[in-house]
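Quick question: what would this complex look like in 3D?
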Amino acid sequence: MNTTSKEIRFSDEAMATVNKIIARYPEGRHKSALIPILHLAQAEFGGWLSPETMDHVASILNIQPIEVYEVASFYSMFNLQPVGKCLIEVCQTSSCWLCGAEDIIDHLESKLGISVGETTADGMFTLKTVECLGSCGTAPMLQVGADYHENLTIEKVDNLLDQLKKEDRQSRYC
Amino acid sequence: MSRKLLLKNDHIPGIAGLSVYRQNGGYTVLEETLKKRSADDVIEEVKKSGLRGRGGAGFPTGLKWSFLARPEGVPRYLVCNADESEPGTFKDRYLMERIPHILVEGMIISSYALGANTAYIYIRGEYFYVAKILEKAIDEAYAAGLLGKNILGSGFDLNLYVQVGAGAYICGEETALLESLEGKRGNPRIKPPFPAVAGLYGCPTVVNNVETIAAVVPIMKMGGEEYAKIGIGKSTGTKLISASGHINKPGVYEIELGVPVEEFIYSDQYCGGIKGGRKLKAVVAGGSSVPILPAELILKTAAGEPRLMTYESLGDGGFATGTMLGSGGFIVMDEDTSIVKNLYTFARFYHHESCGQCSPCREGTGWMERILNKILEGKGTLSDIDLLWDIQSKIEGKTICPLGEAAAWPVAAAIRHFRSEFEAYVSNPDSIKDIKHYYRLNQTSN
Ligand SMILES: Cc1cc2nc3c(=O)[nH]c(=O)nc-3n(C[C@H](O)[C@H](O)[C@H](O)COP(=O)(O)O)c2cc1C
Ligand code: SF4
Ligand code: FES
């Protein structure tokens, strides 16, 4: 999380990926790379998009910072505030609700000692509710980074929390 | 036994890889097509098949393709819509995850038909792991000469890329998708111009759903006429249905269009009946946007005919007594389900997903969510039900894109068919107390 003090700059490896992404679009259409690059930036710089991170992306794509801010603020997967190491996103829409999503949310709240939208004091977990993630047939479900956890039970959730604590890694989508 | 065209091989180990896909006949249709058929031939075949868009609107695919503008010297694009964010829908994910190469093969054949040399698959950001599966399939296809320059010696070139979104249901709407693909906020465009004339980067573009594009492979294999023999009337071919909710066997089923709804719900071949032997209360048959129907109207039409899984039969009776096939997101609710609470989850969803460009949608979705929340908190009044009806009726036809309608229809249908439940909640707030936990996890183990 402590990325603001460091200079924000993509590593050479990340820059190679950036250039590969830009090559997917016709000449002069490099702005199309914005969303994929924001994903990469979020994963590289602590799980959220600080103003410094967004400015760095703007300079790479040679576009105005406002063009980055307006996109970053539109899409729900971009975090404009710091989040915990593990971002737990629980689906709360119809099919998941029908199959007990509220029990999963209640359990996570009491087990982590936080409410939806909050981060644990040790900075390990942020709990968030999200809308349908296309896993309705294996409801209830939650997502941590790119990983889907489906057909949840209370026991499965407990095991998952233990495992995440053990792994102690920043969750990332890409 | 129902014929399977898309998911025939979904359980073959390794089918996600190129070699096993090819061992099972994969890419022979592409080879044959490039060798023996002209681009116009392919469009003709798709027209004959009667294939209708599988993304929700059901527009005839061949017709859509024939509208594509072809100005000299301007590139044309094919964009696959893999945004799949309509609650209750998860079929595209299943298809892409299990058999990614059928989508890649369909993309190549369709691009050939449309004269597109660049194509994108726009996939919702949450499906990152599926995007990786697709990218691997695409890499394999390039290495085998199935993508890139001069594909299989045909002289046809195609580059295919995967683009990930970042969490926005509205980016499933085709013009919002194109905005997003251009690196902008997903605000739907005012139509016309339609994408067929001015789509991606202002160039002629076709946007099709994953399942639609995959279906082009079996159509070219068997011929449009044969494909059209499956199904009933204007509902031809097979359809992937995502089944969820209170059923014994949730999952993705490929059905021949025309299966009776009752058979789909109760047969062991499909949903396997309601969990715990409970009674059926209601079904949302085509994703969150379509009208909910009570058991008696989903099993039989108002005229007493068995309801079938077709565009026409599900639509029979209009919105008064019917619904829509939509995206094929089939959500089943048992006798204990609170229709009002379920509706609230939809209302919250649409409020969250409105892009905010049009006042009736931006404000209306917020109002509907808040009123439903008030009713569920036990503070509702009878006039709130009328207010809810009034608000939903003022959205339809007054917005840039159909999300506004998609938000209004479920509210209208729930009040139309379950008004007494709303009334019970406002006249006896105590009855609401147990909703939240009426369906505890330990009950679902059955
Ligand atoms: C709010 C909204 C969301 C949509 N979401 C999707 C989607 O996730 N996937 C999809 O294929 N079509 C979606 N559509 C329909 C598309 O706009 C478009 O009609 C479709 O991609 C066309 O492909 P098809 O003719 O093959 O169905 C959505 C439409 C609206 C209004
Ligand atoms: S109807 Fe809603 S989602 Fe569609 S453009 Fe208008 S405000 Fe945006
Ligand atoms: S409703 Fe939760 S994944 Fe679809």
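Answer marked as accepted. Chain A has a mean pLDDT of 95.
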